[in-house]
Amino acid sequence: MSDTVIDKTPNIIIDPTKVKGDRKRRMTVGEIVAFVLLILLTCTMLFPVIFMISTALKTSKEMLQFPPTIIPETFAWDNFKTLFTNDEIKFGILYKNSIIVAGLSVVGTVFSSALVAYGFSRYRAKGKKIMFMLMISTMMLPYPAVMIPQFILFSNLGWMNTFLPLIVPTFLGSAYQIFLLRQFFMSLPNELYDSGKIDGCSEFRLFWKIALPLSGPALATVAIFTFIWTWNDLLGPVLYLSSQEKFTLPVGLAAMMSSKFRIAPYNLLMCASIMTTLPVVAIFASAQKHFTEGIVLTGIK
What we know:
This protein has about 300 residues and is mainly α.
């Protein structure tokens, strides 16, 4: 008697028209309306950027035409060259000053905030929660409340018309950044630190070799926030800087609107705005993955 295998699997007949219909689901009226509204909203938000680029590529004569044109009749690419070669604007010096202030501020804020956040997340001590709450409460103080005492302090130190008042405070930590990094450090398991202690690591080496390498997304988030805030800061440089050779980009852009020019050079101003925006866009685009990951991970606790 031979063994026979009987296939009892039922034959399933698939109607190709139904599959095709499922794949090509028709959009409802509400979805179409929402899609159209999103397109209109996107175009509305992009219009200032388009107008900025258009004005930057116009000649001085076409810039004053009414009604204004969106596409320039002649693309004046020399406006960017004029921006950097104009002796009154000195855009190259402004750019260099902003890079120095923003770069050192990022280094100071990331290192000092990470060090303080590591201490708040690792150590147990009496009064630690009170100290942490006092630090967090400083975020509720508006800047004008501390602006005058800081101005008097830096003036007595002889730091006026230097970059020191803009850079040195960043090496003392930032309450918001400390809170952000503390939340991330608290999510790291203690077993990592225990294994490091077994290998003979000191406390600073635990911070440098274990905590920091694992907190890349959070550090990237802090660096991006600090760079944007410092790069766009106008009030601080206006308070402490008095010579044009020390001005940063926000102060320089505001000075271009002054009465020094008979007619404000809006085409050069738009060129400067494009050049000012490019570093922020480039940094955010290159670190977008780490930025979003850092925002998500710091909320785990």
